[in-house]
Amino acid sequence: MTLFAVGAAALGAGCGGSSSAVREAAPAAKASCPGAWRAGWQALADRIQAPVYCPGWMPSPLDAKIRGPWSTLNSVSRDRSYVEGFAWQEHLEEVHVNLRGYPGSTKIPTCEDEELQAGKLVVKHVPCFAEPLPARKTAPRIAATVYTVNQGADMWHLAYVWRHDGSLYVLSEHLAPPLSYRQVVANLDRMLRSLVLLEPRA
Question: Where are the domains of the chain?
Answer without folding.
Answer: 3-17+29-198
